[in-house]
């Protein structure tokens, strides 16, 4: 029996929408000079950090996550196209540029890398173990968390919805890869589509998906979106 293609199409749509938002916000920040210049080494006080701590850096539209390894080092998963073309660790270890990040998102490639706290935070404020309250009895030993992160070092597949930096850290610290950012996004899209008063928003979601998916002009809207809307409303 064939698998139901509607959920697969829906997940692809959601991922393309997130990609659209992510890429264009990054481009806007880069073009407007709005990207924060990373601080100089020593601007962050790491004296209170312990090996295995989960670090969060809130951004405008998303949160970036990492696992502290000690000695001013943070393991984190970042989209990056470079590991697909070279094994030169010296090149790969350089700070990921916007171009590398965007191409990595598009190509669904990433790497679990180690950076300094300064490069990881990139000027943002850091929250420490802020997610522990959501996993009361599931927090692994600090050393176990750090070792899990170290074992995953290197190139990996990437997905904005199914394998991002939050999946990485929750697996390392709590034993299960989950992403509350993904869940929140999916629920928001479902609410927009279910709410009959949000017709305009639903149309915008559909039009955006056409742009992101690159569908042929001859493809009709009912063929694509009616099954999707029915699935989301179910």
TrEMBL record:
Pathway linked to the protein: Cofactor metabolism; retinol metabolism
Domain of life assignment: Eukaryota
LRAT domain boundaries: 54-181
EC code(s) of this entry: 2.3.1.135
GO MF terms, alphabetically ordered: phosphatidylcholine-retinol O-acyltransferase activity
GO BP annotations listed: retinol metabolic process; visual perception; vitamin A metabolic process
Active-site residue numbers: 165
Top EC class, one word: transferase
One Gene Ontology cellular component annotation held by this UniProt entry: late endosome
Keywords: Acyltransferase, Cytoplasm, Endoplasmic reticulum, Endosome, Lipid metabolism, Membrane, Sensory transduction, Transferase, Transmembrane, Transmembrane helix, Vision
InterPro entries cross-referenced by the UniProt entry: LRAT, LRAT_dom
Coiled-coil parts of chain: none
Reaction(s) catalysed (UniProt annotation): 1,2-diheptanoyl-sn-glycero-3-phosphocholine + all-trans-retinol--[retinol-binding protein] = all-trans-retinyl heptanoate + 2-heptanoyl-sn-glycero-3-phosphocholine + apo--[retinol-binding protein]; 1,2-didodecanoyl-sn-glycero-3-phosphocholine + all-trans-retinol--[retinol-binding protein] = 2-dodecanoyl-sn-glycero-3-phosphocholine + all-trans-retinyl dodecanoate + apo--[retinol-binding protein]; all-trans-retinol--[retinol-binding protein] + 1,2-dihexadecanoyl-sn-glycero-3-phosphocholine = apo--[retinol-binding protein] + all-trans-retinyl hexadecanoate + 2-hexadecanoyl-sn-glycero-3-phosphocholine; all-trans-retinol--[retinol-binding protein] + a 1,2-diacyl-sn-glycero-3-phosphocholine = apo--[retinol-binding protein] + an all-trans-retinyl ester + a 2-acyl-sn-glycero-3-phosphocholine
Subcellular location: Cytoplasm, Perinuclear region; Endoplasmic reticulum membrane; Late endosome; Rough endoplasmic reticulum
Membrane topology: Single-pass membrane protein
Transmembrane segments: 199-232
Function description: Transfers the acyl group from the sn-1 position of phosphatidylcholine to all-trans retinol, producing all-trans retinyl esters. Retinyl esters are storage forms of vitamin A. LRAT plays a critical role in vision. It provides the all-trans retinyl ester substrates for the isomerohydrolase which processes the esters into 11-cis-retinol in the retinal pigment epithelium; due to a membrane-associated alcohol dehydrogenase, 11 cis-retinol is oxidized and converted into 11-cis-retinaldehyde which is the chromophore for rhodopsin and the cone photopigments.
Protein name in the entry: Lecithin retinol acyltransferase
Organism encoding this protein: Tachuris rubrigastra
């Amino acid at each position: 029996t064939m698998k139901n293609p509607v959920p697969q199409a829906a997940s692809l749509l959601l991922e393309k929408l997130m990609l659209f938002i992510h890429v264009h916000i990054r481009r806007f920040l880069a073009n407007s000079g709005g990207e924060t210049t990373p601080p100089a080494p020593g601007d962050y006080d790491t004296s209170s950090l312990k090996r295995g701590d989960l670090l969060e850096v809130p951004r405008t539209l998303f949160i970036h996550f990492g696992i502290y390894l000690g000695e001013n080092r943070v393991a984190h998963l970042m989209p990056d196209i470079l590991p697909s073309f070279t094994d030169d660790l010296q090149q790969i270890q350089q700070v990921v540029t916007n171009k590398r990040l965007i191409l990595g998102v598009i190509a669904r490639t990433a790497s679990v890398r180690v950076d300094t706290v300064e490069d990881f935070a990139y000027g943002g404020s850091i929250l420490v173990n802020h997610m522990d309250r959501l996993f009361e009895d599931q927090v692994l030993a600090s050393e176990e968390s750090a070792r899990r992160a170290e074992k995953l070092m290197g190139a990996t597949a990437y997905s904005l919805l199914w394998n991002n930096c939050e999946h990485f850290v929750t697996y390392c610290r709590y034993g299960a890869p989950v992403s509350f950012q993904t869940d929140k996004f999916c629920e928001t899209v479902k609410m927009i589509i279910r709410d009959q008063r949000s017709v305009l928003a639903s149309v915008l979601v559909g039009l955006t998906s056409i742009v992101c998916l690159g569908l042929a002009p001859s493809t009709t809207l009912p063929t694509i979106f009616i099954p999707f809307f029915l699935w989301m409303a179910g």
